[in-house]
Amino acid sequence: MVGRSSTLWILALLVASAISNANAVSCPQAITMLLPCQDYLVNPSAKLTVSCCQAASKLNDMVHSKVDLKDLCSCLKQAAASLHVIADRAKSLPGQCHIQVPVPLDPNVDCSR
Asked: Where is the Bifunctional inhibitor/plant lipid transfer protein/seed storage helical domain (predicted)?
């Protein structure tokens, strides 16, 4: 049987874990946030929209740690491959939206660094 102090300790660890992960962006959340960019990223004739740039900027602002960045990089790299994202469009997105991203948007990027 778990004692009261052990139960409180476990509860405290769970709360601390939840708080530390509160700012992390899940993969599905990141992909959903970037839906306004999908047409631009897969359609060579589509125009870049303000809503895409706003979404990309907001997502960029939500990534705070290296772990979050690595996870997001892997997530978006896999999503880009499955959605057949046009690499040159992905690479140009930060510049066109006037945002600085810590990792190049490139299908060949090494997300482990």
From this structure: 27-111
CB contact burial 76-108 (16+ within 10 A = b; e otherwise): bbebbeeeebbeebbeebbeebeeebebebeee
If pLDDT is split at 50, 70 and 90, which confidence band does 108 have?
A: confident
Write out pLDDT tens, residues 53-105.
999 999 999 988 899 989 999 999 999 999 999 999 999 999 999 999 888 88
Here the tokens at position 113 are: 């660094």
Closest CA to 76 of 40, 102, 36, 107: 107
pTM (2 d.p.): 0.75
Cα(14)–Cα(37) distance, rounded to whole angstroms?
A: 35
- CB under 8 Å, gap of 24 or more: what pairs does 46-52 form? 48/93, 48/96, 48/97, 52/93, 52/97
